[in-house]
């Protein structure tokens, strides 16, 4: 039976009233006006240029893993900007609200944000940066690159791939809606129980937080199933486990973490939902529950999630560093073992979040040791990256600069993490800014790796390189922002400052807070340089066209395809002969031959069902947040109906005719596509076999074929 709610409720709109629109908060009113103007401009431009049909056909209904990956990355960048805006508000509020004489603005006693509003900003910032910025950015990169690295034409489940994207987008949209309709949770991004129970948080903020999190967890779980199945079952012939690129290994490890940890989060949120909606007491100690149950469930997900994010970053570094050192990756086998060691140890560290809960010394000692154990495989990776660069022909291009920055930040974050691993240390600075600075170092490792990956693989996806000058300004101002923001934060942590303060009592902290604010100014400038970087790159794209191997020293299989990559990825399924397949082909002169004829390629059809399901799941969550029961029932009925209708649809595949494939391939070889060399483009990729083929000549024990030797993948 549903619990009794405080406040008004109507059958038509549930708890939603005009009073829930925060028109009395100036910041939100200005934000709404800006968002409305931007949305109007985008809609008007799309209509003026007649792009609605193109947008629907090519993007909103696509199941192409590359386009889905691009949309994941766009979603992550948008939410990264939103999360950064929240961080800017936090830093400015704390710099202004120091000492009893600090003035207040817009209804705040100190600074310009009320404690309630600042609590929402803190909560949204943490949730957005972890779940809706870093996660979509990395999932997008995995979507784009993994099938290309293993020689697949798409993901194992293209429809499921699109559904995961739109569920994640629905969750992100709910966060945005909470800005202007109701409010968001204000008790921290990971939730405090029993504070998040209905008697203590009767508003809709916790419900927004809960359903947003739940949608993201479902979407990411679906994506993890897809990536694992793709890696395990869809590798090209000859790609044994020990020939997989490191980014693919990192993706496999990280998605095993996701598949086993995100369901735990879903259970934790489902139990909280039952407490809030039905009146159970899973987390209420006085009613037979246990508040530590939530904390354990959340951090059993929450700390493996850290490695879910960091392992793909390590994989990115393991691709960039060998490419720009012009050497094979040092210690490949140990790097693979280290990736899975990190994933395994990640399950034994969550209790270090509770060092101050008065557990037995033996318990704290065990989790201190497991936390420190993570440093061993991580150290293996660091030394292997250094040895890869040792005596290599290192080129300091933008992707390499980002990889080196990530390596430096990893050392800082890793060493401060080892300091936090000691329970005795944690007793002193638990919940303080030292811990906050530490995990921001690790998040910045992820961010630097992502920016490096975007620079590195951008020409593969779009066919032209990003411009370098503005990109380097962006890079250097990111370094300035990081130093000026987080070095003072470490010092404030040593000085005893705790997190989530809307008012600073100690005036001696003021200089550090103002230095941090200068760091945020550097970050703002960096964002402007990033926008200029993208604009100039798009403007001058004709001058920056790149071939298949954009950097000239690519090593893995994705560099053997067209730039940009066609829908079918590979005209002929490649046979893999070595770990660094593309480097092996270049060494053996197997880059310019092409098959004499082509076959039709079996591919999935686009569908709008995942897009509509995303909208319906968002509508369902919004209805549950506001207790609009009729709308919830309608959304459930439509979701079930749409899934059933889709299950009867047999027209889900198509075949790209052989002549169309040949036309694309011939266009690259005869020079009609400017600056696309014949070496390494689709169709121009030689199929090298480990066994003899009639009418072929062997090179280093392998042979080449001038006709399709492998049938197109039939999924």
TrEMBL record:
Residues 50-577 form the Cytochrome oxidase subunit I profile domain. Its EC number is 1.10.3.-. One of its GO terms (biological process) is respiratory electron transport chain. The keyword Ribonucleoprotein does not apply. Keywords: Cell membrane, Copper, Electron transport, Heme, Iron, Membrane, Metal-binding, Oxidoreductase, Respiratory chain, Transmembrane, Transmembrane helix, Transport. InterPro entries: Cyt_c_oxase-like_su1_dom, Cyt_c_oxase-like_su1_sf, Cyt_C_Oxase_1, Cyt_c_Oxase_su1_BS. It is a multi-pass membrane protein. This is Cytochrome o ubiquinol oxidase subunit I. It comes from Acidithiobacillus ferrivorans. The lineage of its organism: Bacteria, Pseudomonadati, Pseudomonadota, Acidithiobacillia, Acidithiobacillales. The gene is cyoB.
């Amino acid at each position: 039976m549903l619990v009794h709610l405080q406040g008004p409720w109507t059958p038509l709109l549930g708890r939603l009233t005009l009073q829930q629109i925060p028109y009395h908060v100036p910041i939100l009113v200005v934000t709404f006006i800006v968002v409305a103007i931007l949305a109007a401009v985008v809609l008007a431009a799309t209509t003026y240029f007649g792009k609605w049909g193109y947008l629907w056909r090519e993007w909103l209904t696509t199941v192409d893993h590359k386009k889905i990956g691009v949309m994941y990355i766009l979603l992550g960048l948008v939410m990264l900007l939103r999360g950064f805006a929240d961080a800017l508000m936090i830093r400015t509020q704390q710099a202004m609200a120091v000492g009893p004489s600090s003035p207040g603005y817009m209804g705040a006693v100190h600074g310009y944000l009320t404690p309630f509003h600042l609590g929402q900003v803190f909560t949204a910032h943490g949730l957005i940066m972890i779940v809706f910025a870093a996660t979509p950015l990395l999932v997008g990169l995995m979507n784009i690159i993994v099938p290309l690295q293993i020689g697949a034409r798409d993901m194992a489940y293209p429809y499921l791939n699109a559904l995961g994207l739109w569920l994640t987008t629905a969750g992100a949209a709910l966060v945005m809606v909470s800005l202007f309709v109701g409010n968001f949770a204000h008790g921290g991004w990971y939730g405090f129980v029993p504070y998040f129970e209905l008697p203590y948080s009767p508003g809709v903020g916790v419900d927004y937080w809960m359903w947003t999190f739940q949608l993201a967890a479902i979407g990411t779980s679906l994506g993890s199933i897809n990536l694992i199945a793709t890696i395990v079952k869809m590798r090209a012939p000859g790609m044994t486990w020990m020939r997989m690129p490191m980014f693919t290994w990192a993706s496999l490890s990280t998605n095993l973490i996701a598949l086993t940890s995100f369901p735990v989060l879903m259970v934790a949120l489902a139990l909280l939902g039952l407490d809030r909606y039905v009146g159970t007491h899973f987390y209420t100690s006085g009613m037979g529950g246990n508040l530590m149950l939530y904390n354990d469930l959340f951090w059993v997900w929450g700390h493996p999630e850290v490695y879910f994010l960091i392992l793909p970053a390590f994989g990115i570094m393991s691709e960039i560093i060998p490419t720009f050192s012009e050497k094979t990756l040092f210690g490949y086998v140990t790097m693979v073992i280290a990736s899975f060691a990190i994933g395994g140890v990640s399950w034994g560290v969550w209790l270090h979040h509770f060092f101050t809960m008065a557990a037995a010394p033996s318990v704290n000692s065990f989790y201190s040791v497991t936390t420190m154990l993570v440093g061993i495989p991580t150290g293996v990776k660091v030394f292997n990256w250094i040895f890869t660069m040792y005596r290599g022909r290192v080129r300091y291009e933008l992707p390499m600069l980002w990889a080196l920055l990530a390596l430096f930040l990893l050392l800082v974050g890793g060493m401060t993490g080892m300091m936090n691993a000691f329970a005795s240390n944690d007793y002193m600075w638990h919940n303080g800014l030292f811990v906050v600075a530490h995990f921001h170092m690790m998040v910045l490792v992820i961010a630097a790796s992502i920016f490096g990956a975007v620079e590195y693989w951008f020409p593969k996806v779009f066919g032209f390189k990003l411009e370098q000058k503005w990109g380097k300004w962006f890079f250097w101002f990111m370094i300035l922002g990081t130093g000026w923001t987080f070095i003072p934060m470490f010092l404030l942590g040593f000085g005893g400052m705790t997190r989530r303060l809307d008012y600073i009592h100690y005036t001696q902290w003021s200089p550090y807070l103002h230095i941090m604010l200068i760091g945020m100014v550097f970050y703002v400038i960096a964002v402007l340089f990033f926008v200029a970087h993208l604009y100039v790159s798009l403007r001058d794209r004709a001058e920056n066209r790149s071939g298949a191997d954009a950097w000239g020293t690519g090593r893995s299989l994705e560099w053997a395809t067209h730039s940009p990559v066609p829908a079918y990825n590979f005209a002929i399924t490649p046979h893999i002969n070595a770990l660094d397949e593309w480097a092996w082909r270049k060494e053996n002169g197997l880059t310019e031959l092409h098959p004499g004829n082509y076959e039709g390629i079996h591919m999935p059809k686009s569908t709008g069902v995942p897009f509509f399901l995303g909208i319906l799941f968002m509508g369902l969550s919004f209805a549950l947040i506001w207790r609009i029961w009729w709308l919830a029932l309608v959304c459930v009925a439509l979701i079930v109906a749409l899934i059933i209708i889709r299950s009867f649809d047999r027209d889900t595949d198509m075949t790209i005719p052989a002549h169309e494939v040949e036309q694309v391939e011939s266009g690259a070889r005869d020079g009609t596509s400017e600056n696309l060399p014949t070496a390494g483009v689709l169709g121009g990729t030689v199929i090298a076999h480990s066994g003899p083929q009639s009418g072929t000549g062997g090179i280093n024990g392998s042979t080449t074929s001038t006709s399709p030797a492998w049938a197109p993948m039939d999924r």
